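Try it yourself: sequence plus glutamic acid, in.
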Amino acid sequence: MRTTRYAAAAVAALAALTLSACGGGDSAESEGGDAGGETVRIGIKFDQPGLGYDEGGSYSGFDVDVAKYVAGELGYTEKQIKFVEAPSANRENLLSNNQVDMIFATYSITDTRKETVDFAGPYFVAGQDLLVPTDSDITGPEDLEGKNLCSVTGSTSAQKIKDQYPGVQLVEQPGYAECVTAMGGGQIDAVTTDDIILAGLAAQEANAGKFKVVGNTFSEENYGVGLPKGSDKCEDINAAITKMIDDGAWEEAITKNTEGADYTYNAELNPPTPAPCA
Ligand code: GLU
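Structure, out:
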């Protein structure tokens, strides 16, 4: 048993070595881009269907598609992208500690965050909303007094509840999927975060028919590209986002990634115009 396991591990290690020797990011495959052979480390969510989702090592979602487009414009091939999980609470640290180069992870641009990181974009505007069981009569945050509401540590969604609805029992989890599971089990009355995230979770097969997005947004969330403080990439990223919007790829990406979810983006706020870089 032991021997077999070690043997299997050795084979796997050898395979990994062989793979990195011939397929690694350091062959000059970037076809004239300025990125040379390096990889670019991009932080995304792994557990938000339609936005950033890890399906056994293949990544999908609108954030992923915007990230790939922008990385392409910066001169990176898809093979040169290394996706790294960036949970809400870790995003500033991942950038400050040089563990990622950019973050595309439903990451709202805020003044507090701008004290530690830079932002390009926005590339999308969402709004905070509530997800509730289908038979619930909750219609907005005013109905949550004394109720159990779940959100995620380090998110603007949790912060807004603490600041503006102190009478609500806020339960914090590392990810929104955990909140939805807890609501399925009856311990939670509502989940709060951006409408597009909630719609993606509600549309998952396992959740079919169980929950509804209330549809009464109470914030504006401008999704930015998180960058390390002092980055010189903001202008180029904004140019890439503008190009993606102008050539139709943005619309195609948002349509594809919200297909099957009961979601329509706010057409008065989208697509947004990237803000001037600091
Ligand atoms: N957009 C909000 C934020 O940046 C909520 C979604 C999230 O946690 O990623 O905090």
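One thing you can check immediately is this: Residues 1-33 have pLDDT under 50 and may be disordered.
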